[in-house]
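Explain this protein:
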Amino acid sequence: MPIRQELAASIRKKYGDLDFWLHCLLFLLLGAALWPLTAWFAQTAHDQSRIFHALIVLSVATVLLVRFGQITLTDTLELNRSARRALFTAYGLLALSYLGRMLEGFDWLSLLIVPAYCWALAAGVRFVFGEGTRRLTRTVAITLCVFLFISIWMAPLDWPLRSIAGVWSEAILSGIGQETGLGLYTPQGEAPMLILVVNQHPFHVAAECNGFGVILTSLLLAILLAVHRRSSLFRLILNITLSLALGLAFNILRIVIIVLLAPSLMDHYDLMHEIVGGITYWACLILVWLVCQGPTQFSNEAKSVPQAEAEH
């Protein structure tokens, strides 16, 4: 039965059930309590394209896991065991986060609102679509939690990442025979600028050049796949290391290509910048997906489902 028809049938069946409406009220109250974090995340994604793009990639990766995996709908719109456990966990973490705001010296507890938010989403999906989504929701909840925490640290990571990108780009360009220089330039009354000079052409290594977007997205893909596959701790660390290395490498490659092409394409610099950035961004993510053994075809379990249905 199609998902929409199954959900519609469940609603008609549970419409007169008081427990169903009490469960909906629990989710509604939790959503209202977590609304400030939702608003902050939406505003951050709107203001920072790198966060928005990472969110899109994470969503696409989740769809691929659903597409190539085996997701079954069972007991929809029911507070099953896993949904109930996730819901109570979300409420408990939320209560601790509020408690941390009231107690002096326990401000760090307020950060628990982030995992509370993630487990609330997991509980909601399990409630709507059933117990069969438990593995997927656990995977996405953990990855989203990492995503939100790193998003908070985007500003502090800007200059360290910018410095790494500038230093390595200069080293590579110098190694292939280009005349290079790297330095900090501070215009009067303005913020300092990291300037990379190549063959007497100055390039501003701006915040958009720090590679935060491609590094963050690569890291999220690695964590998503490791958690979904229930990888060992060693494999998780290996995935994270490889994803960070690939993210850094492709960001530096992007800068080097742009710098080399810029003198001959200055009239179309913005277009060239976007094309090179897009190609290196998606090439990196595809490579991370393959290296971390992301699914590229249907699993044996998923293949058996339509075959079994056909036999009936």
User: Anything to note?
Assistant: The longest strand covers residues 180-185. The beta strands are 180-185, 193-198, 201-204.
